[in-house]
Amino acid sequence: MALDAETFDALIDTVRRFVAERLRPLEAEVEAADAIPDAIVEEMKALGLFGLSIAEDYGGLGLTMLEECRVGIEMGRTTPAFRSTFGTNVGIGSQGLVMAGTPEQKAEWLPRIASGEIITSFALTEPDVGSDSGAVKARAVRDGDVYRLSGTKRFITNADKAQLFTVMARTGDEPGARGVSAFLVPRDLPGVSIGEPEKKMGQKGAKVADVIFDDVPVPAANRLGAEGEGFKIAMRVLDRGRLHISAVSVGVAERLIADCVAYASERKQFGKPIAEHQLIQAMIADSKTECLAARALVLETAAAKDQGKDVVMESAAAKLFATEMVGRVADRAVQIFGGAGYIADYGIERLYRDVRLFRIYEGTSQIQQLIIARETLKRGG
Question: Fewer beta carbons below 10 Å: N end or C end of the chain?
């Protein structure tokens, strides 16, 4: 473990109380305002949440994957928009730099990412490029000491406030993934512009927007890895991000199950609490069983990743199962709450909408199925 057991337990306890005492009371306010209060963001910075996955040498907490997943589960017990506030700094917005950055690049950026001074974003998806991420059309053409970057990226999380983008762009004539390279692109470079945030089904407070690059002069020193290695870097980043999202999905499911138990124990129909009706119990039992299975898969895979094992298949399986699981749990929660589950006051319908995105980003469920099948066939079973 990166932290000794006592220190890590203290961190988990602090995050748990932060979620219960500071974040959950603000859920309705965040939904209405579609924004996270500045004071909460500052508290997140003070807790070190922006640097969970960044080494202590660069000002982060340097958590292992298993420890990060444990924190992700705790953060899942509130609206996912709170987690998204620092999520890109912890995951897809920083890990390309962590995995493939030069010592100079790391020294320049990681301390400010870990502190939350800089917000990061990961720019892969394009208007015509989603699941087929090797079909990137944005192009970066070498021009002396810079690359001229042009293209549009779509649905980029935290784009509205990001100061640094990890951008995938085509640098060669080779087709598919082999022609894609990765770049660190500061927001203040000439030619970078951000579109209006999209109106979304859920996760209010977490913004996504287009990022437009118009002949942006990106210093060659800002390239991550060698030319043509961008897709490989992106896939490694997403392997880690999938485990993080899986852990958050488990946390949301645990929150929903606890809410269902509390409501079913109080709500009476036919002269007794609905928790005493067997068909209600069946829904609670199914939700609890699936949640326990997802939690075990996520934590076991995270531990295996920390041991240096190949967990491409297992990460995809965790992401597929955990995100589909929380969707089913949320659906049952609406059913258990009945009419109250459809009304905004109880927050169940909000979480029902919020968790729908988990099955889409960081690779859709269908992409996870392809990865699982490919890796299973490769391994011979």
Answer: C
